[in-house]
């Protein structure tokens, strides 16, 4: 096996591990939410607040209303679901929008903050399309629709609309 094949195999294994970890975390969060309801402990977000100060992004406080762009797992978590994107432009595009939901960013801001390669406004449209498709496939169609490019020359993550 040559170096390229070996590297491809390692990369595929890492993607599989990250995806499995992400799914396991989503299942754990769902189980915790069920247990909190069953034991009448209140909302899970309140129960997990003390953990937010000591844990990394994957274990940070659970917030049903706001998606988490997890830089550790390179995935998006929202409403008990997870979408692994890896170290890709769609992930970093979403992460940039999610830092300031309900705010629009100009194409130039996004290109400066996210892109390293060829930088055109058509690249932004393509990445938004891919991101929406992947979120939809992961069962997050509402979140996919929240990626808004209706303001000319800008994109934003509109969580303030009824979802």
Briefly, what CATH class? Mainly Alpha
* Beta-strand percentage range: 5-15%
Number of helices: 6
Q: Largest sheet, described in full?
A: 3 strands, antiparallel
With strands numbered from the N-terminus, the spatial order across the biggest sheet is 1-2-3
Characterization of the model:
With about 160 residues, this protein is an alpha+beta fold. It has a single domain, classed as Arc Repressor Mutant, subunit A (Orthogonal Bundle). Helix content is about 55%, strand content about 10%. The chain has helices spanning about 5-40, 45-50, 90-100, 105-115, 120-135, 140-145; strands spanning about 70, 75-80, 80-85, 105, 145-150, 155. The chain has a 3-stranded antiparallel β-sheet, with helices on both faces. Strands 4-6-5 form a 3-stranded antiparallel β-sheet. α3 packs across α5 (about 120-135). The radius of gyration is 17 Å and the shape is flat. Mean pLDDT is about 80; it is low at about 45-65.
């Amino acid at each position: 096996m040559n170096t390229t094949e070996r590297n491809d195999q390692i990369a595929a294994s890492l993607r599989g591990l990250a995806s499995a970890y992400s799914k396991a975390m989503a299942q754990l969060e769902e189980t915790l939410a069920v247990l909190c309801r069953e034991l009448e402990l209140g909302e899970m977000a309140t129960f997990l607040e003390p953990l937010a100060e000591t844990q990394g992004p994957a274990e940070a406080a659970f917030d049903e209303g706001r998606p988490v762009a997890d830089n550790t797992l390179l995935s998006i978590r929202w409403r008990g679901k997870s979408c692994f994107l890896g170290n890709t432009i769609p992930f970093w595009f979403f992460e940039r929008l999610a830092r300031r939901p309900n705010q629009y960013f100009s194409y130039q801001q996004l290109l400066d903050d996210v892109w390293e390669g060829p930088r055109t406004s058509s690249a932004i449209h393509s990445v938004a399309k891919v991101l929406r498709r992947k979120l939809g496939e992961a069962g997050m169609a509402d979140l996919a629709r929240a990626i808004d490019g209706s303001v000319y020359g800008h994109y934003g993550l509109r969580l303030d609309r009824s979802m």
